[in-house]
Amino acid sequence: MGDPRGFLKVRHRHELAERPVEERIKDWNDVHAESGLQPWTKEQAARCMDCGTPFCMSGCPLGNIIPEWNDLVRMGQWQEAYDRLSMTNNFPEVTGRICPALCESACVLGIHQPPTMIKNDECTIIDQAWDLKYVKPLPPERTSDQTVAVVGSGPAGLACAQQLTRAGHTVVVYERDDEVGGLMRYGIPNFKLEKGLLDRRVAQMEAEGTRFRTNVEVGKDISWDELQSRYDAVVVAIGSTVPRDMKLPGRELDGIHFAMEFLPDATRRIYGKKPVHDLTAKDKHVVIIGGGDTGSDCLGTSIRQGAKDVTVLQIMPQEPTSRPDSQPWPTFARLYQKTSSMEEGGEYVYNTDSVNFVGTPEQEAKVSIETGTQTEGFVADEHGHVTGLKVVSVAPGDDGPFTRQPGTERVLPADLVLISVGFLHPDTDTLLEQLPVELDGRGNVARDDSYATSRDGVFVCGDAGRGQSLVVWAIAEGRSCAAAVDRYLTGATELPAPIVAS
Ligand code: FAD
Ligand code: SF4
């Protein structure tokens, strides 16, 4: 298998071209200029060394059979490549676009050359498969008389539902939003993941027999205990949606919002839906606190909405964007990644902590720079609006790696502040009242290593059990949880379980 000299003939990666910045910030379409089969796709796939121990596969939570599909891509055997890919991944059109590609960071070729283009191969295979009409509904040959309710339609819930439907069970997915997809629908912006990709997958699932109930919040519109009495098993796939707050003086001012109040509105507007919080960055000084994936998505969205300027604050130092010569081996996937939004404008400010919000007029708390505690001053009046954020530089020092540096305080102008510092745990208020399950020490729904909660017949997968994570982990958990539910219902299972719960 493979071209044994492929990696010697082509030593570079052909990174997927993006559209020019000035063009793409005028619309909400995918930032890439290229997609699907390209003139260079096969020679890039031929760089795979077909390693005896393919570290790429163990790097992928789904256990994707990467060397096999790399070779099938090299030979242009799209049906076979699609057959291999769909054995392990329910939604490769998503991971092929937005996964940080843990597999590429684990690729052995990466020790002495840039790694193979696994993520792009995945995307090309599935795009070819849709174009060539290989992707068809796979309804079960036999149906069981068992029923499952899946609560939450993010990647974990959808993967779980698709596996269980194909195993013959009657599966109903409940979603409190008006559309299916979880964070793939209203969190991740359209310029990273166009929503038509989700629609055609949902249509496939419907044709297989999965039923969807949108605009239904379990716990309010139907209680959790009623759900359990109606179904043979319940899967909790509600994500990790409670945001971490920045409880700084002045937090009460208007104009300070969580990222997930801002991002969904942008997508809702693109698709002609009514925004929920009616937020826009247009003509505003925007400050984004937190420079991870979510912060970067807020940046790209603010730029497209016509912000006056955007500052992204990060307490951490800037990460290197290329691997130093002293560190040649594969490493943590996200370390050297730049996002497309970073090239589009705005300013990243590193080594900087937030002190307090400043409001109108002259409303500013007096805060001790060293301790961050408020020493005197106002509590912002409820009608005030944010005008700025006081920040201070940090450096390694007596108080640890982020010791505040007196004398470096300054105020960044801000009419819109977006808090993007992560998520704490799932929203379990109604679940705990109506169907008590145990939580773990972080507030996630506790489970054993086969996704069973403390309540018989109730399972949990995705961010709700694992904590805030990635789409690829959510799909892997959804698949594994489906296998556990199938075994619970029937006593045995042939469904694959790529990972145990952690
Ligand atoms: P979610 O996708 O959060 O879905 C949970 C669903 O449950 C939601 O639709 C919610 O409405 C629904 N729900 C909750 N409670 C109820 C209830 N009581 N009744 C009915 N429905 C309910 N990961 C990547 O791999 N790559 C990226 O580029 C990336 N970008 C991201 C950008 C942003 C802005 C965010 C916030 C996250 C990003 N992630 C990314 C992380 C990724 O989206 C999540 O890890 C993943 O979506 C988790 O999947 P999930 O199915 O567990 O939960
Ligand atoms: Fe190919 Fe890299 Fe996997 Fe080796 S580790 S089989 S080179 S993709």
Automatic annotation (TrEMBL):
Gene Ontology terms for molecular function: glutamate synthase (NADPH) activity; iron-sulfur cluster binding; metal ion binding; oxidoreductase activity, acting on the CH-NH2 group of donors, NAD or NADP as acceptor
**Domain of life, per lineage:** Bacteria
UniProt entry tagged with the keyword Oxidoreductase: yes
Which pathway does the UniProt entry assign to this protein? Amino-acid biosynthesis
* Segments forming domain 4Fe-4S ferredoxin-type: 38-70
Q: What is its EC number?
A: 1.4.1.13
| A single BP term in Gene Ontology | glutamate biosynthetic process
DNA-binding among the record's keywords? no
Q: Which Pfam families does the UniProt entry name for this protein?
A: Fer4_20, Pyr_redox_2
Keywords attached to this Swiss-Prot or TrEMBL record, sorted alphabetically, are: Amino-acid biosynthesis, Glutamate biosynthesis, Iron, Iron-sulfur, Metal-binding, Oxidoreductase
User: Known PROSITE patterns for this protein?
Assistant: 4FE4S_FER_2
Which PANTHER family does this entry report, sorted A to Z?
GLUTAMATE SYNTHASE [NADPH] SMALL CHAIN
Q: What is the protein's given name?
A: Glutamate synthase subunit beta
Organism listed in the record:
Bifidobacterium cuniculi
Q: What is the lineage of its organism?
A: Bacteria, Bacillati, Actinomycetota, Actinomycetes, Bifidobacteriales
